[in-house]
Amino acid sequence: MAAACIGCLRRSGLLKAGVVGAGLMGAEIALVFALSGHRVALHDRSEEALARAIARLRGVLDKGVARGAYAGAAADDALTRIVPVTSLDAMRDCAIVTEAVYEALEAKADVLRGLDQICAPSCIFATNTSTLPISTLAAFLTPERRGRFIGTHYFSPVSRMQLVEVISGFATGKAVADEVVSLMTDIGKRPVRVRDVAGFAVNRMLHALLIEAVKLVEEGVATPADLDMACRLGLGHPIGPFAMMDIVTSDLCLQVQGILHDAYGERFRPPALLKRRVAAGLGGGKGRTGWIDTE
């Protein structure tokens, strides 16, 4: 597949996309490509994980969550365009592959090295990392591949959140970045270009807020529920910081803040209360107690 073909495939709806990682983010990234009419190979090492992902996506569609932005025939049979696979060989003929595995350098490096050996030279590699610098991840690819590697940081839930941060590394070609911005627009997203720094833009703003919110609770200034209400009513936020942490999990927030602390120092030091709650198993998420439950 020649590099120049991807724009034609994108516009014709014949593009084949790959997504590696069938978790909450990866599955919904696959869904938005499929809702836009593209074929998708969704990879995970576990058939059970793939089955859970497809069932979860069926639930998203049954609830009508994604249909407002993706109306029409493409939305009606979106799941038929997602093929669950357990071998990376299925990515061989993809025009773009998005890595969406666990937010750990080693895990992402293993995936990128594997894809580098399989995919066509024209394939664009994208990573959904939320914190790791793109140029650091690019170092795990062969030099010839790095110009076609880019960050596409989606936000959860992907089927509803329009924003995607598009991050170029040192070696990312301008034409590749332009093509990815156009592709993100085509699949119903609103891309913003962000410089390649740890945490990018949105997570730096978000975690500054989350850290200060936890400190307010530590100091006894206000309760999590009242701070959530204050952010909704006073700042116009659709969801408060503690409700958000209960959804994305405090465990993940602690992990991200650790990365930001390493990169930027004291201003992103995770609060002691957050650490204690995660250690106590009060991180929130499906089936687990979080901030609001234990107030």
TrEMBL record:
Residues 199-292 form the 3-hydroxyacyl-CoA dehydrogenase C-terminal domain. The keyword Oxidoreductase applies. It comes from Sphingomonas suaedae. Belongs to the 3-hydroxyacyl-CoA dehydrogenase family. The keyword Oxidoreductase applies. It holds the Pfam family 3HCDH_N. One of its GO terms (biological process) is fatty acid beta-oxidation. SUPFAM superfamilies: 6-phosphogluconate dehydrogenase C-terminal domain-like (SSF48179), NAD(P)-binding Rossmann-fold domains (SSF51735). Gene3D superfamilies: N-(1-d-carboxylethyl)-l-norvaline Dehydrogenase, domain 2 (1.10.1040.10), NAD(P)-binding Rossmann-like Domain (3.40.50.720). GO terms for molecular function: 3-hydroxybutyryl-CoA dehydrogenase activity; NAD+ binding. This is 3-hydroxyacyl-CoA dehydrogenase family protein. Keywords: Oxidoreductase. The record marks H153 as: Important for catalytic activity. InterPro entries: 3-OHacyl-CoA_DH, 3-OHacyl-CoA_DH_CS, 3-OHacyl-CoA_DH_NAD-bd, 3HC_DH_C, 6-PGluconate_DH-like_C_sf, 6PGD_dom2, NAD(P)-bd_dom_sf. Residues 16-196 form the 3-hydroxyacyl-CoA dehydrogenase NAD binding domain.
